[in-house]
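User: Please fill in residues for this 164-position structure.
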């Protein structure tokens, strides 16, 4: 787990340093962006990374309405930046079948990262986002994430993406 001051530590480690088993949902129940963001927001709240679900959920959903975080690789990188968030973390979710992320005609998504970002940690957030973008370019790792049998295996896969 990254230290409180993530900006200094973001250049070392891997994506796995910003999540944990309890934040990984390999069978999302929801079937649309709003539902999935709500489901992953609740997971972040249950692990005490988000102080209050509703403001976090609303901020993440508003961000998605402004600009969809889906990309052509089947990934959505949703986020919310709030003052109550103490540590940069993400929840990861996977759908059994791709869902349309946002408006019709948007990219289909099967892998969702929901980032909880402290209001004062923009630099660390941008480094983490850059590393997640690196993940998008690795077809092999994306394929592994799509079939990982459990959260421990998912963490092992995320360790392959080093931070930069």
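Assistant: Residues filled in for all 164 positions:
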């Amino acid at each position: 787990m990254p230290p409180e001051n993530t900006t200094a530590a973001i250049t070392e480690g891997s994506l796995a340093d910003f999540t944990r088993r309890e934040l990984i949902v390999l069978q999302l129940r929801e079937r649309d962006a709003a539902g999935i963001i709500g489901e992953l927001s609740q997971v972040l709240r249950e692990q005490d990374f988000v102080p209050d679900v509703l403001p976090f959920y609303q901020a993440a959903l508003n961000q998605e309405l402004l600009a969809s975080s889906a990309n052509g690789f089947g990934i959505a990188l949703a986020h919310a930046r709030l003052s109550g968030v103490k540590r940069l973390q993400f929840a990861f979710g996977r759908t059994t079948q791709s869902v349309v992320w946002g408006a019709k005609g948007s990219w289909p998504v099967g892998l969702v990262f929901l980032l909880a970002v402290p209001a004062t940690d923009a630099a660390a957030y941008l480094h983490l986002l850059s590393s997640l973008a690196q993940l998008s370019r690795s077809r092999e790792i994306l394929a592994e994430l799509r079939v990982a049998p459990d959260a421990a295996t998912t963490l092992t896969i995320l360790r392959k993406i080093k931070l930069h």
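For context: The beta strands are 24-25, 75-82, 89-100, 108-118.
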